[in-house]
Design a protein that fits this description.
40% of the residues lie in helices and 17% in strands.
Length: 126
């Protein structure tokens, strides 16, 4: 079985990608604060792919999805993937976790081994 390996820090381009997505569901002031919190999160929290998908209420993308397939090739070639950027949900309010950046990487990791520990940076909208 191939092991998924991860970079220590998210790549620079992950933050603008996360901001672009979050701008679809939140105002600019909140998005700016969340991105700053994600940038400042120095310690990774580790979660399994299956749990991230469940908490986000997202379906597993198929292995032949072009972006998932690209990440699976990186895994096969022993290239490190970038940590995932998350915005914490709120169980009391029925708000799911948001994968601000890294949905395809989570799916590729799941296809490789659903129990892989994925390093995540987490911000809280509350």
């Amino acid at each position: 079985m191939t092991t998924v390996t991860w970079l220590d820090e998210p790549q620079h381009h992950d933050y603008p990608a996360a901001a672009s997505y979050l701008t679809l569901i939140a105002g600019t002031d909140l998005v700016d604060r969340l991105i700053e919190e994600l940038r400042d999160a120095r310690n990774a929290a580790f979660f399994k792919a299956k749990d991230i998908l469940r908490a986000a209420g997202l379906a597993l993308l198929p292995a032949d999805d072009p972006h998932v397939s690209s990440d699976l090739r990186k895994i096969h070639d022993h290239k490190d993937l970038s940590p995932i950027l998350l915005v914490r949900g709120d169980l009391r309010l029925g708000i799911t976790l948001e994968i601000a950046d890294g949905y395809h990487r989570v799916c590729a990791s799941y296809h490789t081994d659903e129990n892989t520990d994925i390093p995540c940076r987490i911000a809280s909208a509350a």
